[in-house]
Amino acid sequence: MTSPTISNFILPKKVLHIVTSLDFGGVESHIQIIAENPEFTKFEHHFCAISNGGAISEELLTSGKQVAVLGVRSRIPSLSAIRDLIHLIHKKQPDILHTRGAEANFHGLIAGRICRVPVCIAEEIGFPNHSRKAQLAFRLIYRLADCVVAISEAVKCKLIDLGEVKPKRIYVLLNPTQMHNERAKPARPHLLKVGFVGRLEEVKNPLALVRAAGLLRDRGLSLKVTIVGDGSQRKMLEAEIVRLSLSEVVALTGFSPNPFKLLLESSLYVQPSLSEGFGLALVEAMSAGIPVLATAVGGAPEIITEGKNGWLLKSTDAEAIAERIGQLASMTMDELQAIGIAGRASVVERLSPAVYLRKLDTLYDQIYHHKHRDHS
Question: Does residue 104 form part of some domain?
Fold first, then answer.
């Protein structure tokens, strides 16, 4: 997008963010960062969950943030979602509507245009897996947006490949991450401690990490793997740990609201995902100064420069993961820590809340003033 000249228009004041839910997850963490860092933005931010609230909405409400939970059906199409969003928009009178995720984009953009919100922005929070019918629907829906934000270049390319958004209407804005003040304190030199955070689902590939741990143990490497998260593959992972006799090597901690507090002694963080729109947990690990190894999918190649601030995996199978971890295990603690320090510096510079909110403010200003200029 090109930057229009900003003249003496009245600055917009209020942004209404619409998401599907506000419990736990990547988009919920994104909203929490915006809400909890008002000192870095000149806008007044309000928030809405279409279907359900949860831990994040309760936390934001307790701290006095402007949060609405509609509690209606969000599955596309939902007339009740559009109706209640129209009512909320009329009440809030936002200058800018910012929707995130398929359900929020679909219902929010329709409601926003019905209410004549001056600026409507949609955000694609991952890789869309749309049928031909859905591609056609979103091609039409995204025409209602003044621009579509993609959370990585990889997501942008996917939207273009699907024909849902024209390249000139997409703005790439990498997700913000709350930087960890606590720094990693690597484990004893003779023990490689590996961490993983994520949903225990096939796309995150935790089973390959467990099998890689078995291969490394069999090759004589002393290691401990801590897997933080929960999901549909939990029982499968437990069975594999028993089958490979890895109960002393691999620990499944379950879900934790503060996962990296469990990983601050890690000497390596591994993200073996098959697909990843951005990689929030990866950036959080880097912000804690933990050296990272991630598959070269989604946003990871945009975040990691091989051998400078982390490492990239070229394959997602257990053998390839084990081979690469084994190579990194031969590095000295000082060498590993140097990569961790460089990784932290790189994400603080590019992905901190302050940097993100300044870029978001600039985007809002550009689109708002561009529209006012066109209509003046």
Answer: yes
pTM of the model: 0.84
If one compares 105 and 281, the residue with the highest pLDDT of the two is 105
Question: Same domain, yes or no, for 222 and 234?
Answer: yes
Assess whether 308 and 360 both reside in one domain. no
Which residues make Cβ contacts (< 8 Å) with residue 70, sequence separation at least 6?
48, 49, 50, 51, 81, 84, 85, 88
Secondary structure of 109-144 in HEC code, one letter for each residue: HHHHHHCCCCEEEEEECCCCCCCHHHHHHHHHHHHH
Query: Which residue range is the domain that position 338 belongs to?
Result: 192-351
- State the alpha helices, DSSP H only, in 153-269: 153-162, 206-218, 234-243
Domain count, the chain: 2
Whether 166 and 224 share a structural domain: no
Average pLDDT of the chain is 91
Neighbours of 284 (CB within 10 A): 23
279 in Cβ contact with 273 (< 8 Å): yes
Same domain, 20 and 142: yes
Q: Compute the distance between CA of residue 341 and CA of residue 289 in angstroms, rounded to an integer.
A: 5
Residue 193: strand pairing partners: 224
Tokens for 357? 């909110």
Distance CA 180, CA 190 (A): 26
Closest by Cα among 203, 215, 176 to 295: 203
- pLDDT for the residue 191: 86
**4 lies in some domain:** no
Residue with tokens 């890690």: 266
Nearest alpha carbon to residue 253 among 291, 180, 196: 196
In a domain, 187, yes or no: no
pLDDT tens digits, 107-144: 999 999 999 999 999 999 988 888 889 999 999 999 99
Q: C-alpha angle 120/284/28, rounded to 5°? A: 35
76 lies in some domain? yes
277-327 tens-digit pLDDT: 888 889 999 999 999 999 999 889 999 999 999 999 999 999 999 999 999
CA distances from 216 to 273, 293, 320 (A): 19, 16, 11
Cβ neighbours around 342 below 10 Å, total: 17
